[in-house]
Amino acid sequence: MFDKELIEKLVSSENYFKKREDVEKLRHKAIKMSHKYHFQNNKFYHDYCKLKGINGDIKSDDFHKIVFPDGVFKSYEMESPEKNPAEFKTWIDRISSVPVDFVPKGKGSLENFLQEFYSNGLLLGFSSGTTGKLTFLPRDTFTQSMLIRSYTEAINATLKLEQGKEKFILGIPKKTFLQVGFNGKVVADYISPGNVFHAFEELKADIIRLRMRGPRSSKEKIMNYFIQKMLPRLEKNAIKNISNKLEENKGKRVVFMGPPFLIADTAKYILENGINAKIGKDSFLASTGGFKGRTVVSREKIDKLVEEAFGLDTNRYIDLYGMTESNSIMIDCTEDNNKHVPPWMEVILFDEHMDPIPPEGKVTGTYAFLEPSSRSFPGFITTGDKLTVDYDGCPSCNKTTPTLLSIERLPRVESRGCSGVLSKTVAG
Questions:
Q1: Separation CA 261–CA 297 (nearest Å)
Q2: Residue 419 confidence (pLDDT)
């Protein structure tokens, strides 16, 4: 049994401010519950745990043993899932902890194939690396609802947004199964339905896959040629549309969110064209995903652009860190721009020998997390990122959770992530 009430009690903004040991006790109870559920209902995870000598009941000391590599979610063998629907469903059945009670037919395009799953209650959100092989995460309706809850509770602990009243300007597509776009849309729609503006209408999975992996046939080569011609205009139009929307809302409170390269380029466009986009001083800017595939703009430079183009204090610009496999985000606090680990996530850092490092003081290692809020797949994952975490927490705000000091990609691990996908796909 998956204890929804326990998860909902854990995923709460209040837990950012409670005694760490009290929240840890609740979190560990939820992780043990989630582990037992997935052990009993997930074929892949059951076999993985058995190989490591782990059964359904575990202790907190065993947590580092149950995390598995994120590559599992792109371990299917076929190149084009939509052309092998039965084989792909067999793979989904193995990695999913909820039953997939329909037989996908495959409808020509990857986008339609993903829509077929979504219409039957299973979101296959994706991201992609430099190889172009997509990572698919199966999220049932409850897991989708917990993604929305995790994001909004983390936001509520930091920004204090007014539900139903905020105006969102999003530098992400309105319709896409790319995870960052989907997350941004559903969270913004939940917080303030009807008040969300998108810079892009749609970004289809077929185009993303083609742009990331390259063309595989003469037909795809022709498609890629025309896409290359079209996409730079798409990005320029998006920047222009965002700038116009910001100008339309000058002096008003808005929340502008997008990849950091798009925020920086929008600010430059506004300044170069003499546009008055000085939005309300109580507005927020939020970026996520880093500069994968783009020239990095320093935090100092972006802060200056934020002040000059949007008229905002730099503490109104926050950066977010998350990943396709996770239901949650780590958000900068406005006091000192420190990213806080959500209290419903257990962070484990491994040394170069993949031994767990004690969670004390400032620690650097390979990042793994345990997130019990996912019902449709085990949220116990080792990533390709190297993090420095300060378990002593933030000196500037009253949250009690650990903070994230730095993020790096591990050597010889392909660069991936939704911001990188948007960067390459949209820029042309």
A1: 8
A2: 47
